[in-house]
Amino acid sequence: MGYFVTVLLIIGVGLLVWKLGKNIVTTSKQETGKAFGPTLISMATWGTPILLAVATVWNTAYQVPAGHVGIVYTFGGITGQRGDGLQWVAPWQSLHNASIQVQGHKFQKLASFSNETQDVFVDATINVQVSPQQIQELYRDVGPNYFDILVRPRVLQAFKDETVKYTSVNVAPNREAIRQAVRVRLTNELKTHSITVQDLLIDNISFTPKFQNAIEEKQAQSQLALAEKEKIVGERAKADQAIETARGTAQAILVNAEKQAEANRKLAESITPEYIQYIFANKLAPNVSVMMVPSGQQFILSPDMLKKAQVMPTVAAQQ
């Protein structure tokens, strides 16, 4: 449409200049006027075709960048597409560049809810790509703003449907499960429109400041309780170790006592009255033959034992 307006404008200006030059030639009585008139006629005669050629080339040549497809419009309707590079179309056609590269779109503070209807805010990034073969169909059915019409509302709804499955404290730990579920859902819903979901990332999950403070306080209390529990376990281990040490010491004392008792028992069994008299007799002088004891007391050394004690040293000396 713009091309035809440009052509009509050029032709109109050319005719106006040509007519002005013609009038100057026929009405002017001065030599300068007669010379200027033919100049205007010449400009209109040659300038108009040149301007028409320039306008035609300007409206038929288009440069399509790499990673883009040129959508051809004819009187407002999509009639085809072109690849990248220098492309030529009819003067009455127009060409609009459409990206077929992977495009990343960020979402800030997507409002969702947890299982307890607690506000959950998700920051996410989605990478999508349109099929080069089907992009003109997408532009024809939806339009150039297909992302805002098809992708954005689906992303928001998918996150809402997934976060509501978890309690508030379990949303963040299950972010990978939420991401996978949302990506699978978007992939299935958008592939019918020739839109491929290359990747979906969850950048951050946040809550209201009040709830965030409550979570941090609870985590601090949990860490403190865990530290106390570990301390108790450590003290219990020390106590168990002390008990085992004491038990081992007591067992050793008991064994020693039993051995000592056994030794004492055997020693007591080996000490007979005769042995005691023998030891006593050996303590006496060798020439003792008479012992005086108080009246009324028994002999602690029998005469026979005294004789044995005297004989044994003599025999030992002879040997």
What do you see in this structure?
- The chain has about 325 residues and is α+β, with helices and mostly antiparallel strands.
- The chain has four domains: about 1-100, no CATH class; about 100-205, Tetrahydropterin Synthase, Chain A (2-Layer Sandwich); about 210-270; about 275-319, no CATH class.
- The chain contains nine helices and eight strands.
- It has helices spanning about 1-25, 30-60, 135-140, 145-165, 170, 175-190, 210-270, 275-280, 305-319; strands at about 60-65, 70-75, 75-80, 85-90, 95-100, 105-115, 120-130, 195-205.
- The chain has a three-stranded antiparallel sheet with strand order 3-2-5, covered by helices on one side. Strands 6-7-8 form a three-stranded antiparallel sheet. The protein has a two-stranded antiparallel sheet with strand order 1-4.
- The protein is rod-shaped, with a radius of gyration of 58 Å.
- The chain starts with a helix and ends with a helix.
- Residues about 310-319 have low confidence and may be disordered.
In a nutshell, what does this entry contain?
Pfam families: Band_7 (PF01145). This is Band 7 domain-containing protein. This protein has four domains: 2-98, no CATH class; 100-207, 2-Layer Sandwich (Tetrahydropterin Synthase, Chain A); 209-270; 273-318, no CATH class.
Based on DSSP secondary structure assignment, what is the total number of beta strands? 8
The fourth-level CATH homologous superfamily of the largest domain is: Band 7 domain
Oligomer: single chain
Could you estimate the helical fraction of the residues in percent?
55-70%
Kindly provide the name of the CATH class of the largest domain: Alpha Beta
Measured on Cα atoms, how large is the radius of gyration?
A: 58 Å
